[in-house]
Design brief:
alpha/beta; 11 helices; eight-stranded parallel beta barrel; binds pyridoxine-5'-phosphate
Length: 242
């Protein structure tokens, strides 16, 4: 299983003071050095953490793939076509949310998503759709021509963190069913959101179905205490050693 390290919260700390440190680009290089397979970052419409310049710098500096999470808007599509990340992950976005709260409703937005997927793919960018583990959304994603889906593990993580292990187990089964369905439809399958050093194990057990996890908050939170290199290496050992 591969690990995409989401470095948004390095920018969150910097933006708390609107200063120049800590640098997300520096963090991306350290994550790469520690063995991360990909750098993931979310350019939000309100630019609350990552700025356009961070994206440009990171794309220039790192040699591992860059996965840009963004809302399906015209402005963001133009940015992606200009910077050309290796992958775009389309995510829903609401200004008032603390983090991405649910998956993209691909079924309802299919004509818009389809058009965006086509434009990005034509430019040689892989397109993944961040969806809830819901079979209808998997089928709609395939219908839009996406290359991949990223299954939202936020609900699973919430249940696990509140020690509702039976609920968490049911959610893992939903993720497994959707991962299988997606693969049958020829989609690559990734997962992420809310994963931590404690709750990642059950998702790692789906390694035959899920190729990659994208993890941000827990790694960056632990890096404040232990350093980023150690935080990335410890997550890698849980993912690869498991
Ligand atoms: N995957 C997607 C599509 C996301 O939007 C996010 C959050 O930016 C993550 C993964 C990482 O989530 P977390 O920070 O909770 O690990």
């Amino acid at each position: 299983m591969r690990l995409g390290v989401n470095i948004d919260h390095v920018a969150t700390v910097r933006q708390a003071r609107r200063t120049f440190e800590p640098s997300p680009a520096f963090a991306a290089l350290i994550a790469q050095q520690a063995g991360a397979d990909q750098i993931t970052l979310h350019l939000r419409e309100d630019r609350r953490h990552i700025q356009d310049r961070d994206l440009e710098l990171i794309k220039e500096l790192v040699i591992i793939p860059v996965n840009l999470e963004m809302a399906p808007t015209d402005e963001m599509v133009e940015t992606a076509l200009r910077v050309k990340p290796d992958r775009v992950t389309l995510v829903p976005e609401r200004r008032e949310e603390i983090t991405t709260e649910g998956g993209l409703d691909v079924s309802s937005l299919s004509s818009r998503i389809k058009g965006i997927v086509e434009r990005l793919k034509e430019a040689g960018i892989e397109v993944s759709l961040f969806i809830d583990p819901d079979e209808e959304q998997v089928v709609a994603s395939s219908g839009c021509g996406a290359d991949a889906v990223e299954l939202h593990t936020g609900r699973y993580a919430e249940l696990w963190n509140s020690h509702d292990f039976e609920g968490a187990r049911k959610e893992v089964e939903k993720i497994r069913t959707c991962a299988k369905r997606a693969r049958e439809l020829g989609l690559r399958v990734y997962a992420g959101h809310g994963l931590t050093y404690h709750n990642v194990k059950e998702i790692v057990e789906l390694r035959g179905l899920i190729e990659e996890l994208n993890i941000g908050h827990s790694i960056i939170a632990n890096s404040v205490i232990f350093g980023l290199e150690r935080a990335v290496k410890e997550m890698l050992s849980l993912i690869r050693g498991g």
